[in-house]
TrEMBL record:
GO cellular component, one term: plasma membrane
Membrane topology: Multi-pass membrane protein
Organism listed in the record: Rhodococcus erythropolis (Arthrobacter picolinophilus)
Subcellular location: Cell membrane
Domain of life, per lineage: Bacteria
One Pfam family hit: BPD_transp_1
Span of domain ABC transmembrane type-1: 78-280
Keyword Cytoplasm on entry: no
Protein name: ABC transmembrane type-1 domain-containing protein
């Protein structure tokens, strides 16, 4: 993975030198000086090892376009993307879990069919289309919510991120509803649940002790997938709502050929997804000891 990210500089138009000069014509002496400064004449493996050592220490170099340390750019703008993704995740969980629970309890009834249909519809609509619709309705037509910028302060930030978070969360609400409803329905249809009810165990206790307890592995997996998708999905939504997050930074860096920023964002995103998947696997073993982590490695 890391070598593939490093190799981006060789497949990018103009390569490193082209990115540094911005495609402008320069003398051969300047080209030679740039190649020497960036050790571009060293063997590829030597260049890769030097780049990897710097990357592991958090040093991704300097942005070719903004002339700022890449790690500072990622921290400053990545924090906004993380806040947006977490906000959308909270919205998705708060809406999806109760909806799925009601659907599972009333399996086969009108409430279940309505929840399932809503989930399918939510999954089918792309987040950028929802974002544009929300921007038009709440920002332009009714003018009751801000539609651009990150806002200042805690409540100002929440106010500005509400529409983007809803746009991101909608599709994931559908996913979590389907997974949670299926897992809960399966757990509540088991013989031991019927036996517990026949003994007079309350419905709430059956739901918590038998339903959710035996569904948490599936729910945890869906939650991990949801958060991963939300992190990746911030790119288009940030662009629509003019949010200066990591998604906007990635689009701008790709357009400008800012290789260090593109490489750094790719590595950080891949590492985040890897760590998140590992945490989901560990959490699954806590809820279900039968899960073997050695099979996931």
């Amino acid at each position: 993975m890391s070598f593939g990210v490093f190799a981006l500089q060789f497949v990018a138009p103009g390569g490193v030198v082209g990115a540094l000069t911005g495609g402008r014509p320069v003398s051969q002496a300047v080209l030679d000086d740039l190649r020497r400064q960036h050790h571009l004449d060293d063997p590829i493996l030597v260049q890769y090892w030097a780049w990897l050592r710097r990357a592991l220490s958090g040093d991704f170099g300097t942005s070719y376009v903004q002339n700022v340390q890449v790690d500072k750019l990622i921290v400053d703008q990545g924090l906004l993307s993380l806040q947006l993704a977490i906000f959308a995740f909270v919205i998705a969980m708060i809406v999806a879990i109760p909806m799925a629970t009601v659907a599972a309890i009333h399996k086969g009834r009108i409430v279940d069919r309505l929840a399932s249909s809503t989930a399918i519809l939510a999954i089918s609509v792309p987040s950028f289309a929802v974002a544009l619709l929300l921007l038009y309705l709440f920002g332009l037509k009714w003018d009751i919510l801000p539609v651009f910028g990150p806002g200042a302060g805690f409540f100002g930030r929440l106010h500005h991120l509400l529409l983007p978070a809803i746009a991101l969360a909608l599709g994931q609400i559908g996913l979590v509803v389907k997974v949670t409803r299926s897992a809960l329905s399966n757990a509540l249809s088991q013989d031991y649940v019927t036996f517990a009810r026949s003994r007079g165990v309350s419905g709430g206790r059956v739901l918590l002790s038998y339903g959710f307890r035996n569904s948490m592995t599936s729910i945890t997996t869906a939650a991990g997938l949801t958060l991963t998708t939300l992190i990746v999905g911030t790119v288009l939504v940030e662009k629509i709502f003019a949010l200066p997050g990591a998604g906007s930074l990635l689009i701008a860096s790709v357009s400008a050929g800012d290789l260090p920023v593109v490489q750094a964002l790719t590595i950080v995103l891949a590492a985040f997804i890897l760590v998140l998947n590992l945490l989901v696997d560990v959490a699954s073993t806590a809820f279900d000891p039968r899960v073997d982590l050695s099979e996931a490695v």
